[in-house]
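Hi all, long-time lurker, first post. I run a small reading group and we've been trying to get comfortable going from sequence to structure in the token notation. Rather than ask abstract questions, I figured I'd post a concrete chain and ask someone more experienced to write out its structure so we can walk through it together at our next meeting. Sequence below, copied exactly:
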Amino acid sequence: MYRRLILSCLLALLIGTLHLKCNNSSDKTSGTKYKQYYIKGESLYTVHCSNCHQKDGSGLGLLYPPLNQSDYMASNKQKVICIIRNGLQGEIKVNGKVYNKVMPPIPSLSDIEVAQIATYIYNTWTHQEGLMEVKDVSAVLQNCNTN
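-- Answer (accepted) --
Happy to help. Here is the structure in token form:
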């Protein structure tokens, strides 16, 4: 009788723990939302970004800067979010090298698509930043002109 009670309690505890693990929305690197953003972000990156920045994020010579092992990305997250949609003109210094090729804007990207691309590039290669929430990305995008 005690054995059944103990087994029942252990089973209930195990099920409760699994439920909490599967439904933990604060887990920024393994939850369902993170996975959805990451997968969609990879697809969007392939279509819109990889031609210049390469599939492996290594960039293209001195024409297009790397995203992988990028000191610029590490210290300019809000600017990078703005650049994803609004493009970039003028010089940019990445890992001590100067790049001055125009990156065209992609104004058709929605806030959630920008968040998905940001989630992908900030969690691939050498980056581990977690989920880029659309609400946070939207707030950054509203202030791009003032950054």
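A couple of things your group might point at:
The longest strand covers residues 92-94.
The chain is about 50% helix and 5% strand.
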